[in-house]
Every structure is written in structure tokens, then in C-alpha cells.
Design brief:
Two copies of one chain form a homodimer.
Chain A: E1 3-6, H1 12-21, H2 31-44, H3 46-57, H4 70-78, H5 82-100, E2 107-110, E3 116-123, E4 126-130, H6 139-152, E5 156-160, H7 170-179, E6 183-185, H8 189-198, E7 208-210, H9 215-224, E8 229-230, E9 238-243, H10 249-260, E10 267-272, H11 275-289, H12 295-305, E11 307-310, H13 314-324, E12 328-332, H14 336-339, E13 348-351, H15 357-362, E14 388-395, H16 398-414, H17 418-425
Parallel strand pairs in A: 1-11, 4-5, 4-7, 5-6, 7-8, 9-10, 9-12, 10-11, 12-13
Antiparallel strand pairs in A: 2-3, 3-14
Helix pairs in contact in A: 2-3, 2-8, 2-9, 3-8, 4-7, 5-6, 5-7, 6-7, 8-9, 10-11, 10-12, 16-17
Chain lengths: ~425, ~425
Amino acid sequence: MPLRLDSASPDFEARFSDLLAGKREASRDVNDSVAAIIADVRARGDAALVELTNRFDRAGVTAATLRIPEADIAAAAARVSPQVRAALQTAHDRIRAHHERQKPTDHIYEDHLGVTLGTRWTPVDAVGIYVPGGLASYPSSVLMNAVPARVAGVSRIAMVVPTPDGEINPAILAAAEIAGVTEIYRVGGAQAVAALAYGTAAIARVDKVVGPGNAYVATAKRQVFGQVGIDMIAGPSEVLVIADGSANPAWVAADLIAQAEHGAGAQSILVTTDPALADAVESEVERQLALLPKQAIAREGWEEFGAVITVASLAEAADLANRTASEHVELALDDPEALLPAIRHAGAIFLGHHTPEAIGDYVGGSNHVLPTARSARFASGLGVLDFMKRTSLLGCTPAALAELAGPAITIAGVEDLDGHGRSISIRLNR
Amino acid sequence: MPLRLDSASPDFEARFSDLLAGKREASRDVNDSVAAIIADVRARGDAALVELTNRFDRAGVTAATLRIPEADIAAAAARVSPQVRAALQTAHDRIRAHHERQKPTDHIYEDHLGVTLGTRWTPVDAVGIYVPGGLASYPSSVLMNAVPARVAGVSRIAMVVPTPDGEINPAILAAAEIAGVTEIYRVGGAQAVAALAYGTAAIARVDKVVGPGNAYVATAKRQVFGQVGIDMIAGPSEVLVIADGSANPAWVAADLIAQAEHGAGAQSILVTTDPALADAVESEVERQLALLPKQAIAREGWEEFGAVITVASLAEAADLANRTASEHVELALDDPEALLPAIRHAGAIFLGHHTPEAIGDYVGGSNHVLPTARSARFASGLGVLDFMKRTSLLGCTPAALAELAGPAITIAGVEDLDGHGRSISIRLNR
């Protein structure tokens, strides 16, 4: 049974805090092994990369075969059914269209003193995309990572994907082909991240590494951060559904199950003002679970991490949502816009009864790479801005410099940086 | 003597690569000690914080005196001269005015299928600002970190500053007062970062930690990343000046010295199309160094890390600047705008002969917290966006859902996520 809480209970605060604090994944300390792998790849380059790949993935690669030939990409992509190709193309086109609208504009202006000030955006040159292999190998994630990079204007995208026992999901390669990614290497784990960050003979280094992965990949990203940029440290997925009496319990139940079927600590929470809906959703989850091919995973996730919370008002529901700062928040309400301003911390918000979260996973157009584990308090979903950077511009006329010199030299003095002051005063001498 | 390179020399490529690869700070591996400090603060809270603070800073604090009373802030601020206060106020007002223009706007629209898509910006709730104590304790940095947070709408700003032997620069507190920061704790090091990230009885936890610090602080930020957001890992400061024959050698020399006087690995590079200017600047640096009170630090930095590079064209200069991806790039040219599009990787660009970098450090209005150590390849200077996060919005009408259902269910099938497909198909049954 999932946790059932009522915000009116005396012990609610304590139990809700426990729910928030609960760990949903084993935090494995792989710091030392990852540091050793990174050091090895830095020291021995491809030799280390090949050795580690053959050991961990039993892939039988050499430095010459690390890269998947473009002909092989095309051949694999061709093995995917026309229906799947068309679906991936639709997803790609919608993701692309939406992300095109995220492109920032430069903002450069002159202030009242004649000082030029501004922000200019430019793309990152080279990006590495990590794509997990095996079970959680999702072609949709290839699109979600590659498309914003391309829209940003990134000129080189290098994709790495482990191929355990030499196997790769052809839909992954089809998605890469649709997204225009042609530089793909069959490597994974911390060794792939190290190669992307520091470069080897076979894999030129990139400027930023994005994409989800296991504990080794996440730790490697943390360790190479600074040498390259990284996106975020992804945790288990999660949804929080806010529903009132207008919600359809079967639809809400289906959404809770969709989240729980990710397994690996995925969490589904229902917050509702309607106790009858809460009961009906719980029954519906049971009924629908019984019909699901992978019911074991979904049931385990629902029972271990799921929660159904009844509250007195939608305002209270919004408050709990903000404290949870969930990756996905669904507003299963007739008038979702009315509650929208109250939801301040969420990776993505899904509006109304006809927007199941799964639409956003694939074809809505928005990005499905979103902050997890309460990091929506400070982090954002992946987007075009993540593949660009800002340069600030400053320009003074002689008159503007003369105007600003006094306070600048004064502060330089307080900071004991005379050379700073002198670089200004020397320009004032006629 | 600084390094002198000519891009026409046969060994130029090798020597320039060495310059780029050169380490300018000892990379101290303090991972284990930092992990132990963070674990201690998490386990024992204020007791650990007080013990560590009294051990490292000899500060004689208790849990009750960790926070600096507002009356003490006001009293310290009042000890600062009216001239310094006015200068800090000018800096504050200009930084504020510029950052007000960085505020993002939400972008929400309906596409041709009637799907609502959008990006909404909201501020981070609580931010911790780390301010170094001791030598490199800069009131200007307090403004550069606090002002964008306030402009973003952050409702709580907690500042931590170590007070070695109980001492604190009153200008730091004056800057905090001007920026409206009233919650200030006399703690520093990894223990301060741990307290901000996880909270203690005395210091409530925040959502994001920003600000520069030593190896312990940088390592602690890296380790708490994910639990909270962080800004960047700051390295030694650096400037690259691109100059042609129109530049004043004395002014360029003053700018190179201003950077070098930061010490601690700070780097000054001149790239010029004019060998005569290169010679003149080198002589001027010598002449001006002799007049500088802190000449030892600046001379050491200039001789150890400085470089003067002659090139055949401004295009070549821009190429070297992009490969260097410097924190600060000065364009000491009559027509800086002409070269601007060619400079793609830089933290900040200073336009023309009358814009010494030091103006940007204090009163230009732009932020002086900028990416160092070549991270301008992927990172940006601090700004309002760093204190906000994006939530994506998605809303389907029944008709739009029906339109998108097919491809979404197909992709869910390929990914073996039947529950995802069912959350869509269940809504299509009439």
C-alpha cells in the first residue's frame, strides 16, 4: 500500500517531512573508483578506454572500432519500423519547433552616461551526450538532449552509448540520425565521461557533457565539472498530481502508474482535496496494475514510494507541491490556470485533465530532461540556454570613464588593489 | 620575464598549447577532509560548526553568536568613510540598474494544434553567499553576488564570511548593508558551505550557494552540488588584451599589472599585431611595476604567468582569444565593434581604449563574477538568471491530445513503457 496522509492529522507535518527526506536510491560511494578510471583515461587514452569498455561491456572494441560508422547508423536506423520512424520524426519536429522559440536574443544598450552594457549569447562549440545502454535506453532522450544543442547552434555533437555485449537498441540510432547526430561512440560509464572531458586520440574532447547515467556516470560528471560543463545530476523520476473532485480517477491512476513503472526509485504522489477521489484512485491503481505487463516494477514503486495525501484546499496542495519541488506536477483540475501562479517550484507543470505527463515525455515539444530530487528549487529543465553561454560587454567613452573613475578608484583603494585604481587614473591624465 | 611568443615561429603552436595547459594553482586534493567536515556538520550541526570555526578561525564563537547582530552590521558600516560608502552606493546602484535589465520574461503560447507550451521563470527561495575573509575579502564581490539575487526576487539571502581572529573588514558589512543583506554568519570554509546546504539549528538551509573561496570551499561546493545549486568553481583571475598600433602602451601595461596584482595564479596576456607595441608595453610594465606598492605580487604573477604574443592579424588574435576563453578580454582597438563578432568565448569583453577591466570590477554595472580557467567555453558570468529557474508548461485540449496520441503511444511501446502509453490511450476512450 502507498502511504496515505491527511493534512489535518496531528502527525501530518512529521510524516510529510519523512516523505520528503526519504531516500529513493542507494547512494553508492563510487568516488574512488571513478577517480581512478578518469586518471587512467587521462594517462593512457584510448588504451584505457578500450580496455575498460571490453571489461565492463564485453564489447570487443578496438580504438579503430570505438566509433560507430555512419553506414552502420543508417543500417540500424533502417531496421526500425516506418511507424516508429514517423513517431520519432514527429517528436523531433515538435521538440525542435518548441526549442526554436527558446533562442535568446542579445541585449546591448547604452546607459545615460554613454556606457555600453550588454549580454551576448553564443553557442558552446562541442557537446557530449551520454545515452545509457541496456534497459533504460530511450530514443526519446536522444532527441531531448540533441535537439536543443542543435537549435543552440552547437557545431559538434559527440554521442556516447555503451553497447553491453555489443548490443544497441536500433531506435537509439534512428533517433540520433533524425536529430542529425553522426559522431557516435560505443563507450559508456565513467570512462566515456572521462574521454569526453579530457579527450583521447579517438574521441576529441568536448566543452560540455549532458545526459543521464548510473552512479558511475553521475559521479564522473561531478568530478569533471569545471574541466567541462555538465547539465545536472539526474535522480529517480517523480510526479505529483494535484486533483480535485473534477478529476477522472482512472486517468489519475494511469498517470501515477506511468511514473511508477520507471522503477529505480520513481515516485508517484497524489494530492487531492477530495477524499472520495483519493479512494477511487487507489482502487483504480490496483485495477490497472493488474492489467499491466510490467506490473511488478510499477507495483513495487507505487507501494514503496507512492503517497496519497488529502488536503483541505488547493492552496494547501500548492504549498505541498512547492515543498516537494517535483520533477513533474500535474494539475488535474477544470481550471488549472487558476492554481498555476501558486506552484513556484516544479520542473514541468501539466495543465488540465487532458495532459498526461507521458505526452511531455515524447511529443508535447517541451523537454523531458527535468530536475529531480527536489532540485527544481534551484534548477531548470534542459533547454537551448544550456547549450549557450553569455558574454557580458562593457564599453566606456572618455567622458563616461571620467564620470565613473572616482568611485572605482575609491573601491580599489579599500580592496588594496592599487594597480586597479592606476589602470583607471592613468587614462585620465591629459 | 613573461613568455614572449610570435605566432609566425615554427614552435608557436606547441608553446601556445603549453601556455593554455599550464596549471596556475596547486590542485590540492582536499576531498576527504572536506567530506569529513560536511559529514560532521550534518551529524552534529551547530556543535560541529562552532568547533570547526573556533579551530580554524580562532574566532571564539558560540551557536548564539554565529550570527552577526544587525546592530553590529550597522555599527561596522558606520565606521566606513563617507567616501567609501558613497562609492559602494554608486557601484550598487549601477549594478542594480544593469541587472534589472536581465530579468527574463515568461514565454507562453499556443501552437497550431492548440497545445499550450511555455517557459515560466521563478526566483530561487533562499540563497547563500560565501564571502572570503582575510586578504581577498572584497566588498565589491558582496555587491556582485547579492544584487542579482535581490533583483531576481530571492526572498532570503544568507551570507557567510569567516572572521579570522574575530576580524572582519567593515567595508564588507557596509556593502552587505547597502545590498540589503541582514542575515550574516561569521563562519567560513567547508563547514560554512555544509551548514548552508544542509542546515543547522542556527543556520537554516538554502537552495543555492554562490561565491568564491579557497580549495576547501570549492571542493565543498562540488560535493554539495545536487543537494543545493552552486554557481561555479572559481579559479585564478585572468585577462587577455588584444591591441593594435592604436593602443597606448602605458594603458595596456596598467591593465596587465592590475590583473597580475591579484596574485594566486592570476594571468595577464597581451596579443598584438604590433611588435613595437609589444616592446613598449613590456617596458611600461617594468616602469609601472617599480611604482606599485604591492609590486612583488604583481611582478611575480607577470613573470610567472604573463605572456606577450605577436600575431599577423586581428583575426588570428581573435582565434587565440577563443582558444584561451579568457575571463576578461580587452579590445584595445580604435574600432572594437569590428572584432567583437569574432570573439566567441569570453567571460566579459571590454570595448576600446577607455574601458579598463577594473571599471567592470566595480562600477560599470556588469557583474565581475565571471568564468575562469577556460570555462567561458561553456559557462557564463553571474547574473539574474542564476538566481531563477525555469518551469516548463504543457497543456493539451482533448483534440490536441487525440492528435498527438498515436506517435506518443508508439514511442512508449519502443521504450517498453506500456503504462506511459496507457495513460494516453485511457483518455481517448469515449
